[in-house]
Amino acid sequence: MVSVKRKQNDDDLEATTPRKLRIRTQQEEEVTERGALGAETPSKRKRGQESVENRTPRSILKRTSNINGANGTTPKSQRKLLFTTPSKDRSDETPNGTPTIVRNADRSARRKSNRRLIERTIHGEGSDEDVLDEEDTLAQQILSDEEDEDEQDTAESRDRDERSPVPETPSKRGRGRPKGSGAGRPRKQRSPTPPQDLPPHEQYFWQNRPGGTKTSNNTLSSQTVLNHDEYFEVMQSYKDHHEPEQEFLLELHSRAYDQWIFEVEEGFNICLYGYGSKRPITEKFTARLYEHMLDQAPYKGSKKTPKIAVINGYTPGTTMKDILTTVASTVLPSHTKMPNQLSSLLAYLLNHLTENRPPHPIPLIINSIDSPFLRKAPTPSMLASLAAHPSVNLVCTADTPNFPLLWDVGQRTQFKFLFHDATTFAPYTAEIDVVETVNELLGRSGRRVGGRDGVGFVLRSLPENARSLFRLLVAEQIGLLYMDDIDGGDGNDVTITPRSKKKAPAKSTTSESTQGVEYRVLYHKAVEQFVCSSEMGFRTLLKEFHDHQMVESRRDTMGTERLWVPFRLEELEVLLEDLAAAEAF
Amino acid sequence: MEYERCYIYTPPETDERAPKRRRINKANSQAQLQERIQIYRETWFHQQERIQATLEEADRVTLEKIINFVSASAQTDYAEPVSIPTGLVIAGPSIASHGPFFERLGRKIKDETNSAYFLLNSGDSSNLKTFLKNLIKKAMSRVDADDEDDLGRIGSSSRNGPKLLDFDLGHLQEWHARSRADRIVVAIQDSEAFDANLLVEIIELFYSWLDRLPFVLLFGIATSAESFEDRLTGKAPRYLQGQKFNVTQSDEIIEKLFSATIASTDVSLRIGPNLSRRILERQKDHVQNVQDFSDSLKYAYMSHFYANYPSLFLKQDITFKDLPPDVFEATRNLPSFRRRVEDMLDSGRAQEVRKLLDSDQYLFENIVEHVQSGQEVLSALSTAGMVIVRVRQALQMSAQVPLSSIWIRAASGEMMGSPLLRETMLSIKKAPSDRLAQLLSSLEDLEGIDFPVDLKAYRKDLDELNKDNTTSTPLRSQHDVRNDNLRTTVVAQKVLLSKHKAALSERDKAYSELVGHFHDELDTYFTTAFIDPRALFLSEILMYDLKSPHTEVFQPKPRFAIERALASPHDYLGCDCCGDADGGRDADAALSATQPATAIIYRLYLESGSLINVSDLWSAFNALAGEEEDAESKTMALFQRAIAELKYLGLLKPSKKKIDHAAKVMWKGL
């Protein structure tokens, strides 16, 4: 009794953790208990009452449970028993009490997670999103349950499970807890669609969440992807139904040409940005500018024509030198000897422009000033100093969204740009080699040589040694791919998926590091098979492949050079067969 | 032509008629444009002169100091060199303005002293060798720029002795012997960008040549002289004899420019408060660059005259006969004209209104008169702004408020009743006589402007009051806090606080009266001067305050533009097919098959995670945009083009993680 008294005092003081004691206290002095726990939630009290009702079996059960625990019987088996609980018992509960009981029964985190697992295996539901959501909710609940975890895990959960059949029953019915039971946190909505209307940064984190990047293993068959011929054939017959609108946009921009000419005349340079190829605009603008200049002083009435330099920055291999020589050709007589070095050429040109000031600034049109070919180190700064010269008028277009990052403050000042939005929606026909870009994006640059046939064609023109080396490389690569398969396949006990699907996850783990054949390994194999005798020879053979883009090389994270043939497994296999067949002849 | 790298434009050989027709069209739509451009050029010319003058004035002192330093170092004896004379030019953090500064410096040095000036920056000097090569190249091309084979001669130009390498300072010596410059000034524009070791090497090398070549070094420093010194190691600092020069910081120059151009009293076209605020903010936050400030200003002027028809009235000595009738129509459509007409009708001057609407001649006279008076009102406003600045300076008020912010507040009509003005007026009331004397003299300095308060009378009165003053203490006004004292009295255990005015002497009283009078007069002056200029008749002509072309042109949002074009193509195309039916704000909620392929793909792209399965993307696209079964190749072609475009725009990149996957690079709106 003494101890009970003391405990009761405790109870009074801290009404937060009364559960364990409460029951015992109630047995002795129910009235006091009521008074002391006045602050408690009614639902909790109800449960207390129930336990009072079931007082008699409780003490026995408690003992048995202890025994049970010692025996190692899992509470689960007990719960099975409870399935048989008559419905009459259920009617005993007050309707208000149910959810609380359910919640309490569910309190144990481990139990809950177990149940989830079982549930999932039974129902077979369990998309990736589900897993994630569940993990989230679970973690959340575990965290917030932590305060009352202690007692729950030890006394309470055991208590209640075995103690009274009553609280258990609804939990059975609940099977995954009725939604909106109102107890605790509402369960997170699970839906196949990602959350809508997230602010941009949230969207970023949502899409980059760990495990969020699970994608299917479907692949595009090589037949569906068009090659150059097919693509151009289709595109020739294709007519965009937005053409009138695009025309309208062009017309809209063309109204600004006079304004641009005015701006250019006032010493500003112009930069056009926006989606769609801006080549039609620059083309028309150049024509307009040409006419305008024909009307002006040095050309009016004379036979001379103005010279407008046009640079297509998107064409592969465009260099600063090209730009400088083109600009120089507009002011210098054609036979002038110019310095060879880039920086001195620029200095020479600028000097020339300062000293023999041309009658009008030289118009310089650059399409795609932000193309990869004009991005490298000295080019932007040289362009800036060229554009900064009062005798050069630059009109350029920029395609990428982040092009201003190319220039620092100083260069930006030198450029003295006025920016104009010139969205055209016109296709980038000249700027992009569509088929090539897609192949590169999909890692199928092997199609560049014209696919398998192309490779065969090239090989036929190469000496015997080269063919052997290539066959060796292909065989090695296939071997490696299969090894990947086996490595990855072990952990993957999903058996029914077709082979192509099984291969992909394995690849995702290993391919990054082990794609391709190690240079050393290949060399030794080649020497072993008398394909070549020295590294020099080996290099020469490889160079031929490189030239035809049949082989790609890269250094991996360890710094070892790796070579591979840019084809996929199926294609490689066929290729190897072809090669073997050719060898047989 | 589109696949060629570079070419000179040649017009296509088509019929000759098309361009001519266009020219006629142009004449109609842009009548009087040339005239307006002419006015613009005149107006801007004055502004530009002001800007130039201000800039030169701002730099003048520093430039002169540097030049004196350079020429002084030329006179010392070079038989036994001790150290290289070095100028540490603290040019401040706004790197963009360094270039023009060093150019100006170079011109001045070359003009005023007999020295050679070479400007080098980090870009063309990655190591000692290239640094020297560049230096020599600059020197050689300078002497005989017209000599054609000069560039070829470098490297082989040693008549006697072994052939010199092209980075041997021997070249420079030879050149120096020919050119006979007193000094070789080598300016290093961005010393921070140089490798510290390279700097040390340069200094040591130059020092060793100092007995043969009279070097002077100039370092451009963006941080501080101390940190520059810290970077020099070894003996290098001992070889230098440094002097520090502070360049006027760009924000100070901008402030000066602002008062010279926008807030000046005699400009015909003013930039409105919103635009000025924008320009200044951009200066402060982004560019910090004088050139850019004048560009912004120039563009504002250009826009005003290019697009505003009635701006013709800003022409000086304009006559009625010069003007086409259109311009009067345009003027009648101005909001301020309408406002004025309404006001006139309210006050029952219907007759005049009729005349304004009917008679161009009458309107013309009216306009000319109002443009004139408007200019005066605006310059009075500027003057008042300047007066406030002077007052605050003379009274040594703690919060430094630059003229720009005062002017902007005044021009947006917020000055009257603002705490700033109230505070200033209060402190005038409290000013003791010595402060007031300062104030008066500083206001008297504002020569040549229209200031209605008779300062001389106040000066005389004040002098008279001061004459009798035998003590050194200045006279105080009755509002001076020092004339108040707090008294605490304890009455029946309660503390009573009471304020007492100290007894004022006769002279103090007289002075208080004087100050009070001065205060009242200034107050009425400010009340008349600080009107809201936007309420003025014809304020559209006198003031340019449109943010629209200005912001886009100087602060573009290219990424936003592209994202918008792709996410809601309807915004640009304006077609019937792609617009959303309900026309709601969230136009990009609708995703329809009629949209351009790239837009559809982009929408799918936005929804996907950081890794995209291209095959799934294709099936989604095919389901959305694919039409018939047999047209799959067409859909595929569009699909390929769309993803190729996304890759070109830098939105997608290849991924090695999985087969047929691409990685997402950009997230919308970030």
UniProtKB/TrEMBL annotation, chain A:
Subcellular location: Nucleus
Gene Ontology CC annotations of this record: nuclear origin of replication recognition complex
InterPro entries: HMGI/Y_DNA-bd_CS (IPR000637), ORC2 (IPR007220), RecA-like_ORC2 (IPR056772), WHD_ORC2 (IPR056773)
Region span, Disordered: 1-220, 492-511
Keywords of the record: DNA replication, Nucleus
Example GO molecular function: DNA replication origin binding
Superkingdom of this protein's organism: Eukaryota
Acidic residues bias spans: 127-137, 144-154
Every Origin recognition complex subunit 2 RecA-like domain range: 246-422
Origin recognition complex subunit 2 winged-helix domain location: 512-571
Claim: Nucleus is one of the keywords in the record: yes
Bias type Basic and acidic residues, positions: 116-126, 155-165
GO BP terms in the entry: DNA replication; regulation of DNA-templated transcription
Keyword Nucleus applies: yes
Main location: nucleus
Main function: Component of the origin recognition complex (ORC) that binds origins of replication. DNA-binding is ATP-dependent. ORC is required to assemble the pre-replication complex necessary to initiate DNA replication.
Similarity comment: Belongs to the ORC2 family.
Oligomeric and partner information: Component of the origin recognition complex (ORC).
PANTHER family: ORIGIN RECOGNITION COMPLEX SUBUNIT 2 (PTHR14052:SF0)
This protein's name: Origin recognition complex subunit 2
Taxonomic source organism: Zopfia rhizophila CBS 207.26
From TrEMBL, chain B:
Keyword DNA repair: no
Residue stretches making up the Origin recognition complex subunit 3 winged helix C-terminal domain: 559-667
Pfam families assigned to the protein according to its UniProt record, in alphabetical order: ORC3_N, WHD_ORC
Record-annotated Origin recognition complex subunit 3 N-terminal domain positions: 5-308
Subcellular locations according to the entry: Nucleus
GO biological process: DNA replication initiation
One cellular-component annotation, GO: nuclear pre-replicative complex
Domain of life the protein comes from: Eukaryota
GO molecular function, one term: DNA replication origin binding
Main location as per UniProt: nucleus
Keywords: DNA replication, DNA-binding, Nucleus
Family per similarity comment: Belongs to the ORC3 family.
Protein's name in the database: Uncharacterized protein
Native source species: Zopfia rhizophila CBS 207.26
Organism classification: Eukaryota, Fungi, Dikarya, Ascomycota, Pezizomycotina
